């Protein structure tokens, strides 16, 4: 989901 | 993963390695703020809650483990190691954690994308990371002689933040990357905190002088 895609960052 | 993101992560990794090198090899933590290091340990502990339940890539998991491990071991060195702890400038490192932790936590409770435990903790970690460098910057300002490794550590940390902003701009144009205003704004605030330091860092580098911040 769009909410999760930024969480590939550290 | 784009080049800015990779360069940002590598700069972050380099900053941690420089600090560990100073502490482990020279057995000194002079000029390093324990308050900032404890805040970073809290930042990573609250951000990576899903490290073992939400797999992204081996790279991602490995980097998370490195950041968790290094931040907690730096705190351990500064508090417990019998030689390193003697060089800690306790009297100068007086910033109160709670003045940063409490407002960040309250802000995360109010401004978040989803009101769930994990999401609030993740948001809290972003807000806290934005201001976690403050005790270190205050300590640098009080320390008349900033040694090279401490100066490089802060410079690399600031560089990592600047590269992450380039990474977001790149992702915005290339991936239709969903804009997370919380990440962008707290990241921007964090980077701006380094502006003053960068100015004096480059100034001393250009003139080949020792780094000194004005009182």
Automatic annotation (TrEMBL), chain B:
The chain crosses the membrane at residues 55-77, 98-115, 121-140, 152-170, 182-202. It comes from the Eukaryota. Keywords: Endoplasmic reticulum, ER-Golgi transport, Membrane, Protein transport, Receptor, Transmembrane, Transmembrane helix, Transport. The keyword Protein transport applies. InterPro entries: ER_ret_rcpt (IPR000133). One of its GO terms (biological process) is protein transport. Pfam families: ER_lumen_recept (PF00810). Signal peptide: none annotated. Belongs to the ERD2 family. This is ER lumen protein-retaining receptor. It comes from Macleaya cordata (Five-seeded plume-poppy). The lineage of its organism: Eukaryota, Viridiplantae, Streptophyta, Embryophyta, Tracheophyta.
């Amino acid at each position: 989901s769009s909410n999760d895609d930024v969480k590939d960052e550290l | 993963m784009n080049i800015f993101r990779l360069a940002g992560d590598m700069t972050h990794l380099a900053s941690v390695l420089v600090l560990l090198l100073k502490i482990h090899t020279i057995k000194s933590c002079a000029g390093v703020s324990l308050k900032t290091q404890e805040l970073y340990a809290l930042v990573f502990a609250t951000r990576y809650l899903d490290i073992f339940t939400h797999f992204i890539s081996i790279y991602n998991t490995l980097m998370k483990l490195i950041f968790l491990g290094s931040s907690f071991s730096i705190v351990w060195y500064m508090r417990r190691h019998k030689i390193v702890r003697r060089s800690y400038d306790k009297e100068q490192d007086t910033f109160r954690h709670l003045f940063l932790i409490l407002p960040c936590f309250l802000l995360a409770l109010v401004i978040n994308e989803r009101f769930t435990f994990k999401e609030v903790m993740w948001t809290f970690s972003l807000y806290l990371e934005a201001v976690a460098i403050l005790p270190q910057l205050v300590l640098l300002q009080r320390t008349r002689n900033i040694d090279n490794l401490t100066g490089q550590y802060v410079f690399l940390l600031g560089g990592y933040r600047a590269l992450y902003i380039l990474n977001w701009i790149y992702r915005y144009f290339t991936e239709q990357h969903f804009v997370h205003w919380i990440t962008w704004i707290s990241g921007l605030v964090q980077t701006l905190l380094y502006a003053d330091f960068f100015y004096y860092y480059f100034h001393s580098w250009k003139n080949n002088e020792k780094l000194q911040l004005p009182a």
